[in-house]
Amino acid sequence: MNDLKELASTLQDKQVYMRVFFRIEAGYIWGQGMPVNKTEEFEAEVKGKLTALGFAEEQNDLKPYGSSPTMVRGAERLYCHPMDLSGHIKKESLKEITSALQNAKTFKVYMIDPIYDFVIFNPKELRRELDKRWEDLKKATLESYHPGRGKNMTSKYYFFHKVSVPSMPRFLFDDLFAADQLRREIHFALIEFQKKVLDELIREGFIVTSKSEKGDLLYRTATKKEIAAFQKQKSAQAAGSLSDAKDKENEPLYDLTGPVF
What we know:
Blueprint: H1 2-8, E1 17-25, H2 36-51, E2 56-57, E3 70-73, E4 76-81, E5 84-90, H3 94-101, E6 108-118, H4 123-132, H5 134-144, E7 158-159, H6 181-203, E8 207-211, E9 217-221, H7 224-250
Antiparallel strand pairs: 1-5, 1-6, 2-3, 3-4, 4-5, 7-9, 8-9
Helix pairs in contact: 4-6, 5-6
């Protein structure tokens, strides 16, 4: 926690956030749901309590999390389902929100379930932190695209996917379908950086590529045999380039075989 506080103090946002679930009882039965009138009453009350704290309902036609309302206040957001209010809030907001949800008529908070703490990077800050962990990300990428063992391992490839880095501090999760611009920007910044890492590993011969039937690029960590062959070919190319350079050094400055004027 202290490390995250120290890191947050260097960021534009300055806050430590928490991923949290407010577990509630509102009469919802899993697999059956809840009567429409009770759902409307619940949503009206929970929206009213959060609106009083400065939250507003997010307008997102994609509804990536479901049909229940999502309430936002700056970077804080809570998805308000009648089984739990889930999302991320500032750590310092926990007491305020907990107090506001007490004594509700349509639901009761029976447990607060904190999952983890994290910070929010802007894209520039994210790239800075990823730069510090370039080698860690290369190692994690090789592990993530490793085909395992067995005689068919060289035929196993993977589509591009995001790779987590163990040494990276937790940060706001990226989301291509989020309504807020920041999370989409974080998504593209992360994808861009990880593709740069993949490109370097390909140039170094540690990742090999193929294509799917639809033409999508596929990736796989190279075998020891493939890496050795790549390095041998690279050495041969380098030796050939050096030989060509020496031949050019021995060429005469002027061509004296033709007519002299």
